[in-house]
Q: What sequence folds into this?
């Protein structure tokens, strides 16, 4: 929590003689030895496959999506316009 020097300063400031003797008698823990990791070997070159264009998708069979949408919605819109109720005047 506190280092040895900090505890000594606190003990001297407070005038506690027993704390100074107790703290001074404790040996400092030895730092752990430095670990040296060997550098990893250089990666070996890898041959990349040649680029190939993806095959083109075959077009959909039948009418396009826009034509199909108009084929279904146009008669429905026309029917709504013709069959709407009119004013009775």
A:
């Amino acid at each position: 929590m506190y280092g040895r020097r900090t505890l000594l300063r606190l003990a001297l400031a407070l005038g506690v003689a027993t704390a100074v003797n107790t703290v001074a008698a404790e040996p400092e823990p030895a730092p752990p030895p430095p670990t040296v990791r060997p550098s990893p070997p250089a990666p070996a070159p890898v041959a990349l496959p040649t680029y190939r264009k993806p095959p083109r998708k075959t077009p959909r069979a039948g009418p396009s999506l826009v034509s199909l949408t108009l084929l279904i919605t146009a008669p429905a819109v026309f029917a709504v316009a013709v069959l709407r109720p009119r004013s009775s005047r």
In short: Residues 1-29 form one domain. The helical segments are 4-14, 17-25, 65-83. Residues 65-83 form the longest helix (19 residues). The chain has a mean pLDDT of 81.
